Amino acid sequence: MKKILFVTSEAVPFMKTGGLADVAGSLPRYFDKEKYDVRVIMPKYVCMDDKLKEKLRFHSRFYVKLSWRSQYVGVAEAKVDGITYYFIDNEYYFAGAKPYNNIYEDVEKFAYFSKAVLEALPHLEFRPDILHCHDWQTGLIPVYLKNEYQKQEFYQGIKTIFTIHNLQFQGRWIMQAVKDITGLPEHLFTADKLESYGDANYLKGGVVYADAVTTVSKTYAYEITTPAGGEGLDGLMRARMKDLYGIINGLDYKEYDPMTDALSAFSYGQENLVEGKRVNKNELQKQLGLPEDDGTMLLGMVSRLTHQKGFDLVGSILDELLANARIQIVVLGTGETELENMFRHFAWKYGDKLSANIYYSDEIAHKIYASCDAFLMPSLFEPCGLSQLMSLRYGAVPIVRETGGLKDTVEAYNRYEQTGTGFSFCNFNAREMLSTLYYAMDIYYNHREDWNAIALRGMRQDFSWGQSAREYERLYEKM
């Protein structure tokens, strides 16, 4: 049996700030249990929910040497849905009201975490064949393993996979400070190793020293090898292309199932999609104070409100769209202040057409997917994206920009061949997006049978975690 240890800074159900947590917490459940023993190790944050902390049991404790420091390491353990989770405990590093702080604090926090994970392995009675590391917070694990720990017999033969969930976040900090924090030798801080534009770069270290590198869609794996998408590391990504794999994220089809979703007003499936959308739409309109009209196209957006997500494009066309088109829009999310205020402004100006919900609610998110006719994601870049998978699952037709995982998961509608699962546009351009929205609205209002067929094709797609797990299994076997 192959032993795999996921190393991550967050994982559901214990801590979540983004899609990384869904991958690290959900994916391990979908591997072939007869062939793979997949476990997860993460920090024990003080800000974790107290009810979840009650599930943890003490496992072991020891001290780790981090440069000139000697730091305490506690290890706790829990079992959820058949998966074993380990937790690295040190309140000096993992206190605070949120899991991530300022970068200058986090670079030491995750250097400590990386060493603590490697030092913990002999204590776990679980020697992994593969350490599967996720994002920059674990980038030093392949570095420490190759340069320090594999001199010891216990660590010899352990392979590493480094998965990039978003290349924009790299863990870059002042070179001299990182040397002092990590205790790594001077020769590792060169342009072909950890140095990046004068700073030290944790993610770069992970990419350089891991045995294989993956990212969360095939298109994003290509995009990060280009100057436009490589975030300054495109040369390194091209150098590692033979070991670079794109594996699309999956979706938890049990949690996101319109037939059993207790958070939506009315359960439905492919057989009663039209009725399900109508009932859910009327309930959401009533709840959010929009005119109750099941004949008006309802467009949803559930997202972090950031420039990466393409809301600059949305802001530049909202006046024209809301003034002239028969449409209602529901927005849910928080983010950059100027974008939050932008949606507040348009909700004030077009109160009968736009509902701006500047907060996050899992319940409202589920209701939006179940109620909306269409779902907009005009991202500047999108490594994978989960919202379009959720919208497909619920028969809310996605309208996306052709980038990263959006391009890989949404097939553009072809009215002549009657194929496709959504609508897409290529360039990061507001007029192109608006043209695509008008085209989608034409199909919705004037060719409703075609629209319903698009939604049904989307519901029949399989983007479950099981598909992703099989691809990771093939990579593990190859290694």
Spell out the key features of this protein.
alpha/beta, nine-stranded mixed β-sheet, 479 residues
Describe this structure in words.
- Helices cover 38% and strands 20% of the residues.
- The protein has a 9-stranded mixed beta sheet, with helices on both faces.
- It is built from 18 helices and 18 strands.
- The protein is α/β, with parallel strands linked by helices.
Task: List the topology elements.
Blueprint lengths: L1 E6 L11 H8 L9 E8 L6 H4 L3 E10 L2 E12 L2 E7 L1 H4 L8 H22 L5 E5 L5 H8 L11 E6 L7 E3 H8 L12 E2 L2 E3 H8 L2 E4 L2 H6 L10 H6 L4 E3 L26 H16 L8 E6 L8 H14 L2 E6 L4 H13 L4 E4 L4 H10 L2 E4 L9 H7 L3 E5 L2 H6 L13 E3 L4 H17 L1 H12 L5 H14 L1
Parallel strand pairs: 1-2, 1-6, 2-5, 6-7, 7-11, 11-12, 13-14, 13-16, 14-15, 16-17, 17-18
Antiparallel strand pairs: 3-4, 4-5, 8-10, 9-10
Helix pairs in contact: 4-5, 5-7, 10-13, 11-12, 11-16, 16-17
